[in-house]
Specification:
The structure holds 2 protein chains of 2 kinds. Chain A is mainly alpha-helical. Chain A has 11 helices and no strands. The longest helix of chain A has 33 residues. Helices cover 37% and strands 23% of the residues of chain B. Chain B is an alpha/beta fold. In chain B, β1 and β2 form a beta hairpin. Chain B has 8 helices and 10 strands. The chains are: A mainly alpha, B alpha/beta. At the A-B interface, α7 and α8 of A face β6 and α3 of B.
Amino acid sequence: MRFREWDWQGLALKAVRIGLFYLALLALWQIVYELEIWSRLLLPSPQEVWKQIRFYTDNGFIQDAVQTSMKRLIIGYTLSLVIGVAIGMAAGAHRYVDETLGSLVLGMQSLPSITWLPLAILWFGLNEQAIIFVVLMGSVCAVAISARAGIQGIPPLYRRAALSMGANRVQMVRYTLIPAMAPSMAQGLKLGWSFAWRSLMAGELLFLSGGLGQALDLGRNLNRMSLVIAIMLVIVAIGLIMDRLLFSRIEAWVQERWGLATA
Amino acid sequence: MAVEIRNQERKEERPLTEMQTGGELLALSGVSRHFRTSRHQTLALDHVTLSIREGEFVCIVGPSGCGKSTLLNIAAGLDHPDEGEVTFDGRPIRKPGRERMLVFQEPALYPWLNVRANVELGLKIAGRKRAERRQLVDRYLALVNLRKFERAYIHELSGGMKQRAQLARALAVEPRMLLMDEPFAALDAQTRDTLQQELQEICARTRATVLFVTHNVRESVILGDRVLVMTPAPGRLKTSIPVDLPRPRGPDSHAVVDLAARVRAELQHEPVPGQPEDGYAI
């Protein structure tokens, strides 16, 4: 993949196509703004939003909010990976765990994680731990379900080969199970991340102690829709960047290496 | 103690009984295995008794579902008999081990590792040192003609290359015996011919002991020092046919074709109802 030659012309054309689409979208926004269907206070112009982004990045407000949010997200997400993979692997390997813990996880998956906030506040108090807990609960189920599917999807032949080579339990996990569940986990990582991100935003909107969610609420309180839209754009940008730079790459790499890509 | 004495006895016996092959390595005596489905119970193996000496290449031939894979799994230690005894070098087989390596019909290679890493894995599991691993992997990749493809990933290989890689992986841990479960069944005819020739050469060079399961009669005659014919439902060993033909044996030599016809005739014999319960000692 590293040695692939870049198709500059194709890339340029693609950039033009995508650019045109977003220009059209901006134009539409501008037109709606000019028509004054909603009051200019409620729907600011694109320039107004851009000004807000400039203003709040110049004074460091957006950077601070991003930093606070990312810290919570990374802690909560990492915890959910560790716990989720452990639960998922146990459920994938042992029927008893699957029937008990596995079914519980499956059920909790349908529970929006923000519903944990009231309990979390009572348990942990109005602090970081409460919001990290909400993030954790948001993504742990998705991660566990992917890990379980990963274990159960391993061809029995792989296990038999490892057994024939005399692998003990630890070697079986290390050399066979973990790598074999990677394709499923690549999707789980991505899914878990997006659940964590949503949970965090919901939590911060309600919880009000720094972060992007609170910045959104600040915009609402100040009746400054341009700030609200500016923060929403920042959230979208972070999501896109994480997906393109990290998760899509992991997924593509796993697909290629594991021979799953349709050549 | 008892085992040691028996081995000594065998060592003394060796030159008298057989020139090329050594003492008994794998022994099944009166092995039976049932499988229960929701409706009925099938007898996959019915009192199977066989013995394979060191350095011997034994083929088991029989139609699908005659229990030959079950037999191989039992020899590998992946499955256990309901009745009877299985010993390897005088000791009962309880679990899989590196001294008996399985080669599967579908290539059980790991797609996330390249050819070299796949071959190396067994040695890693065995806890061999890096330098030793490198040397062994080099040797066995060369033996199966895969040195050029050592960096390739499994999905980039042809069916024949996959089976070569699997063979190299099994040989690299230097097992005392290879258990091969229809390894060439999924290959096209030409690749199959080539691999049969290569396997003969490899076995001549490494003096490997092999238990080779197949449903291809001619293949069994080309490869085996001895062909065991198995009949299905219940799985029984019917006859043992020695193959005293010079090697390497080509697929079209008259002697091979003639002997294959004899094996096929054995296979097509109608099963006689009410056969003796003890099966056949071979």
